[in-house]
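EI: anyone free to look at a 61-residue chain?
SC: sure, send it
EI:
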Amino acid sequence: MGDQQGKVAQAVHGANQRLLQRAPLTPVEGKANRYLPLDIDTTVLDNSKSHKEGVSRTYRR
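SC: here you go
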């Protein structure tokens, strides 16, 4: 299972790199440093007990 987790981690890392390469990032100048603001939504929703039509499972099941 460890080898499979490593492959998943590599795939996620590669996807993150490709996403960040395509994103228009504009640095914000501070007094001593430059910062790159990122706004990324990582919310996982579980609507399994909501009884709504058309609701499917989340990544966490």
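EI: The helical segments are 2-22.
SC: 👍
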